[in-house]
UniProtKB/TrEMBL annotation:
This is Chemosensory protein. The lineage of its organism: Eukaryota, Metazoa, Ecdysozoa, Arthropoda, Hexapoda. It comes from Gryllus longicercus. PANTHER family: CHEMOSENSORY PROTEIN-RELATED, GEO07322P1. Keywords: Signal. Pfam families: OS-D (PF03392). Residues 1-16 form the signal peptide.
Length: 121
């Protein structure tokens, strides 16, 4: 019986979707988006044009490819809200930078339907 309980717990643990770290959940994102100098640092880090200069930028660089591929499947609700906000901001105010990010992480358009669906949610 103990073995069965242990096995069930092990399967449940493996099947649970691990969320991304929550450092971004309360990040003052408007401070980044409204400061071109800072925003460029984050975008260059995301595009691997320059080394990432802080922990938050490094986390973005680390998790962005997977988030794009999966439609932010591992994002917390707050991260999903922030991601939608940032993407909409970039599309409206920095379309070239958004296009560069899309071309970098989804060059064939394979994941476009997923993140377009994500944006509409």
């Amino acid at each position: 019986m103990k073995t069965l309980v242990f096995l069930c717990l092990a399967v449940a643990t493996v099947m649970a979707v691990e969320k991304y770290p929550d450092q971004w959940d309360n990040y003052p994102i408007d401070d980044v988006l409204k400061n071109d100098r800072v925003l460029v640092v984050y975008i260059k880090c995301a595009l691997q044009d320059t080394p990432c200069s802080n922990k938050e930028a490094e986390l973005l660089h680390q998790y962005l490819p997977e988030a794009i591929r999966t439609g932010c499947e591992r994002c917390t609700d707050k991260q999903k809200e922030l991601a939608r906000y940032v993407i909409r901001f970039l599309r409206e105010h920095k379309p070239q930078e958004w296009t560069s990010i899309v071309n970098k992480y989804d060059p064939t358009g394979e994941f476009r339907a997923k993140y377009e669906h994500f944006l509409k949610a």
